[in-house]
Amino acid sequence: MKVVEYMEVAQTNEIEIAKDYVNHLYKQVVERNPHEIEFHQAVKEVLDSLIPVLAKNPEYIKKSVLDRIAEPERMISFRVPWVDDNGNIMVNRGFRVQFNSAIGPYKGGLRFHPSVNASIIKFLGFEQIFKNSLTGQPIGGGKGGSDFDPKGKSDMEIMRFCQSFMTELARHIGPDTDVPAGDIGVGAREIGYMFGQYKKLKGSFEAGVLTGKGIGYGGSLGRKEATGYGLVYFVEEMLNNKGLGFKDSTVVVSGSGNVSIYAMEKAMQLGAKVVACSDSSGYIYDPNGIDLNTVKQLKEAESKRISEYVNEHPSATYSEGCAGIWQVPCEIALPSATQNELDKEAANILLSNGVKAVGEGANMPSTQEAVDLFIENNVLFGPAKAANAGGVAVSALEMAQNSARLSWTQEEVDQKLQVIMKDIYSKSMQASEEYDVPGNLVAGANIAGFKKVADAMLEQGVI
Ligand code: NDP
Predict the structure, then answer these.
(1) Which of 143, 213, 385, 451 is catalytic?
(2) Residue 106's domain spans which residues?
(3) What is the distance in A from the centroid of ligand 1 to the CA of 350?
(4) How many domains does the chain have?
């Protein structure tokens, strides 16, 4: 056999071995975590994209690195009792998954939403490992939350819930152990109540235990905007590399929360026209371009429904059902609400309307079928792990400022964020080229994020 032929056979064998290993591991993950469909989905995507890495580096298979990564270091589940305004005793369930600490303390947000369960927390925590690695900051992966529904609760009910939640969580976290932040349903107010309770329990001011804090007590300027701005910086980078940009483009952004609002703001600053956004009830379409001040007033200041936008803007229309937003024609789509909000059907509609780029602001907002369709049709696709990493990256900058007991200006933080997002883009592109999937940022981000964590695990032994 010629050397070239032999090499090809050897390579095929290595690929087959890697595929077998991945299939076996995935089966094991499903068996060990029954009914956790979101977690299975997140693991499958990562495993499939790592096949070429495993084929080239059999050491990762021999030392069971992925078997270990797919199993959380620790999963904590706890009772959260609290008293509502009528004196009723309520009980919720709290979670914290401490997934991987190979490259730094566990880091990841807390989500308060009725849909929260072990599967949601584990999918988010698993993705966080690779995302945090990609930022280049020394942070491991974690996530947490509760099935508590903040909608319709009074400020005092929110405070009592946050205090009870932290009463248990406090024993598991710390500035060098595990550093939670916000996510769906957890903003500056909730972080404030939780920080206050942590401080009271510990009897000391440990600023670095939570990020997303108020500016007056250790928060970072630019953190609030970081995920949305970072998303747009990332997508601008994808577009620029094809000679395109946000300027004069039509954009649709789902959601109207923290990520969505600041993604809209930055897209508008770069000259785009944002024509639609949504909440969990429905979406608005404003052909004149969304008035962001009205959205901020309704959602950030008054916690109202997005449907009320049309009262002030007769040019706009409101439609019930948030999934319909993808029918609005656009060149750039930024799904920024929640997981699996953009399915195959929605992807086909976006494609037929000529979408050029999709950037994931939310975590796993596109189903696997939707992602495959975008990639097959050469749509520029920025996966969540890379595209929305700006939030956690600035959280790490908040931790750095807390450790050094200083604070940077908004401009300094924004400058660093831009550098980080460009770096994530180029790392992911490079990895995609090195492993023969050029331009596939889903694979590139998974590979680049994985290798740093995997190599650290190998160096630290079997722990
Ligand atoms: P917010 O709570 O601020 O906003 C969430 C938005 O999404 C709201 O408009 C909400 O509508 C809508 N939404 C929530 N659940 C659903 C649902 N089941 N169906 C449709 N719409 C829904 O959260 P964030 O903006 O912080 O988070 C949004 C996404 O971004 C999440 O996937 C989160 O994990 C991800 N993310 C957030 C980061 C951050 O820094 N905040 C960092 C990285 C990722 P309504 O007002 O009706 O509740």
Answers:
(1) 143
(2) 74-205
(3) 21
(4) 3
